């Protein structure tokens, strides 16, 4: 199975900061990479799919990039409500998919 | 409003069974594949199983093969997960999730339920 590794595992940033989270696949997955946000006690929410396509209704401060094995999620100007855990997930192989271990983002 | 609502979770003993349900509203359920994803307490997300839009194809993570069975009733807009021979490491919040793809599995989860907790403990 393809392994997904996120970094960092946690970070703390201030409102207005630019934040970048990285996800690395153990082998090439083309652009089959998706990002989810999970606030405490809530279900995950799809933010970005196919590496860079913003899901409908997601604020434009979120963006994704990358292909092959290395991907990034960027929040251009951090807002307080962005405090959450972020997960990447590949959708390259059929049928199994795997998630990264998560990155916990705290607002200072 | 597009919504998924899970039910059926609870506290059970190892070796017993439980059936989860997921009721779908606000979209044409019969046109989309569906998934179960679980999250152990304080842990990350683990994909568990998928079923195609018509129920003809199903796949499971290795750890639940032979113990869990996923099914759907398109006439009732409801998804099911029959869990047998439950183990303590099955303890998790179980989410149902809608696949983004219309008639075709994309393995992108665009709508999630609120989750139902399953605790397996003696």
Task: List the SSEs and their pairings.
The complex is a heterodimer of chains A (108) and B (122).
Chain A: E1 4-7, E2 10-13, E3 19-25, E4 33-38, E5 45-49, E6 53-54, E7 62-67, E8 70-75, E9 84-90, E10 103-107
Parallel strand pairs in A: 2-10
Antiparallel strand pairs in A: 1-3, 3-8, 4-5, 4-9, 5-6, 7-8, 9-10
Chain B: E1 3-7, E2 10-12, E3 18-25, E4 32-39, E5 45-51, E6 58-60, E7 68-73, E8 78-83, E9 92-102, E10 109-112, E11 116-120
Parallel strand pairs in B: 2-11
Antiparallel strand pairs in B: 1-3, 3-8, 4-5, 4-9, 5-6, 7-8, 9-10, 9-11
Structural description of this entry:
The complex is a heterodimer of chains A (108) and B (122). Chain A is mostly beta strands. Chain A has no helices and ten strands. In chain A, the strands form two sheets. A six-stranded mixed β-sheet of chain A has the order 2-10-9-4-5-6, with no helix packed on it. A four-stranded antiparallel β-sheet of chain A has the order 1-3-8-7, with no helix packed on it. In chain A, a hairpin with a 3-residue loop joins strand 5 (45-49) and strand 6 (53-54). The mean pLDDT of chain A is 96. Chain B is an all-beta fold. Chain B has strands at 3-7, 10-12, 18-25, 32-39, 45-51, 58-60, 68-73, 78-83, 92-102, 109-112, 116-120. In chain B, strands 2, 4, 5, 6, 9, 10 and 11 form a seven-stranded mixed β-sheet that branches. Chain B has a four-stranded antiparallel β-sheet with strand order 1-3-8-7, with no helix packed on it. In chain B, a hairpin with a 5-residue loop joins strand 4 (32-39) and strand 5 (45-51). Chains A and B meet through strand 4 and strand 5 of A and strand 5 and strand 10 of B.
